[in-house]
Amino acid sequence: MKNESPLDPHQRIGIRLVGLARRWRQALDSRLSAVGLTDATWAPLMHLHELGSGISQSDLAAAVGLDGSSLVRLLDILVERALIERRPHAVDRRVKVVHLTPAGRRTVASIRKRLHAIESELLADVDAQDAQVVLRVFERIEVRIAAMN
Description:
Order of helices and strands: HHEHHEEHH
Number of helices: 6
Largest sheet: 3 strands, antiparallel
Number of strands: 3
Strand order of the largest sheet: 1-3-2
Radius of gyration: 18 Å
Strand content: 5-15%
């Protein structure tokens, strides 16, 4: 028998969100690994696509949620696979900016198609209004977290 959580739903959100996020990423990763992409490699590609090609390594690291040295190792793998390239910043030569290559853009398109199919399956019984509510709540939480830091 499970222990019942406190009645206040606010006290249950954090633990449920953390567990759900982990299982969500595992579901995505297991399906994407079939095409040779792990969470560690496809996530930076998707963030780079969303943020726009030509962002600094440090900005990409922050978006992905990794420290700079961990991201550098992942970027090395993506460079070896010819999915991204690093270029010197136009003004500050110490800064490297990351760009998707044509092969990287094709890979992102493939990932997006696969993600759409997986997410459609995972969200099959969630209507658009409920999804919009969830997104608004996430936004409020993100704003508060940013204000705390």
